[in-house]
Model the fold of this input.
Amino acid sequence: MKHYLLLSLLASSTLALQAQITETATEAVKNMGVGWNLGNTLDANDASGTNIDLASYWGQQDLNSETSWGQHKTKPELMTMMKNAGFGAIRVPVTWFNHMDNDGNVDKEWMKRVHEIVDYVIDNNMYCILNVHHDTGAGSDLQKHWIQADEQVYEKVKDKYEKLWKQIAEEFKDYGKELLFEGYNEMLDPLNSWCFASYAASGGYNATVATSAYNAINKYAQSFVNTVRATGGNNESRNLIVNTYAASNGSGTWNAHLTDPLTKLNLPQDKTKGHIIFEVHAYPTITNDNGTPKTSTVVKKEIDDMIKTLKDNLVTKGGPVIIGEWGSSSVDKTGETDYDLHKKEFFQFVDYFVQKTKEAGMGTFYWMGLTDGLYRTEPAFHQADLAERIVKAYHGSSFVGEYPEMAEIVAFEGSKKIGWGDPVKVEVAIFSNFDESSTLTINYIQDADTDDDIQFFYGDWSKQMNYIYEGKSYFADFQPSQFLGSKGGSSHETVFSFDKDTFANLKKKGLILQGNEITIKKIVIKSQTSSIDNIIMPSDDNDVIYNILGVRVTEMKPGNIYIRNGKKVIVR
Done:
């Protein structure tokens, strides 16, 4: 009997040991490599409401919220592409309140969809960070976020917050070290203060508001850790992530309170030591106030100062740091960006930022760009050179990844009768991978003998624009009845192109097609240049070279295709 009991105890101990995640937080940050955010997807929402006490505030949306901010439904192939490019981790932001009832129960179909996307990441042997995202953030007259950095709000929502994390933790309790949980995103005080708590108060600081905010952040963090650990299984030792107030990184010298979000954040008490990670976000500017690029010396110093601040104020508390979101301050916004205007300086910033954070033992997750909109469904990169730059900054210039780009994209497919002010739109991001050598093919039906018209507008409605048809330039209006001599009811496929200046504006503003007596069926953009760079390369180059089968070779022979520094090249 005693032997049986001893064997049972040993078996139980073995099972308990197997349930432990032994990879520490520091090891996880190192092993996950360089990361990317699946932004504006599961975090997207069109829910509204300012009174969290009303049942109508909760559970306003179904699974269609995934596409409500312009992204398309995520497919497993997207994660395979990111893995093949060289990314080792994906942060999956999720908004939950629009899929919870008033009692805090998460909709089963929503949880199932979240689970599917987590599996897309894990199945590609990447780390996955799952979080609570736009349940926090800046409130407005239309929406008030239910999780706020305020002690009274914390006491009010504590049970619901812990219930949410209990459901998430139970759903994924058997997952291994590759899955990490992040307790909350950019949590703000009731004044919507960025940079530091109470910054939006009269006079730029209010000690009472600030103290309440920082106390609340620590309470949320502790509730998060306690709740996850209590669910058992691998959650007893899973690596967990807590953000500073507003995910602020403490950079800058313009205010004495900038480092408060770091100094006031505690390392949560945890029965499992060494499994907590701190997170901040970083969107520095690489330009001066007049729009000119800063010198590389200035940019590098600002990065060095930020890393030192994070080391001095967070790492010393006993946890590693990840930059859960980063980019330059204007990247990925509509209009001109640092990527578009100052690519040389921007890429220098990318190189230094990724390299120095890696040296400091800090992980980085680029925010949302690289592949966007329809590009994610292909999947393909619309900023392939940026994706490659980020990966090589981390892995080294000899790293060979795959960075597929679209040679053709279907910008619209369906049946839309355009009218004045009722257009078909082609979004900015769709033009990103193309240049003025590309063509725009429109399949359409001419609905009448006369008064038919397709008008070309820039996507911001600022003005009408030129287009090129059969080698000649025209302004704004294309009438099939006049150009083609056709009658109502006829179907057409017409190819247009644009001059260099017009196409540059399309990449900034997008395209609108409005008109009269026209039904658009399909719009296709095609690149007229090869996806293989026709570059004459000397055969005695010393870089690492692979043939098209991936076999390393010592020389490149004329007429063959090779991969050099991750790019396909053909030797003439």
Notes: DSSP finds 13 helices and 22 strands in the chain. The longest strand covers residues 408-418. Confidence is low (pLDDT under 50) at residues 1-18, 530-544, 546-552, 558-572.
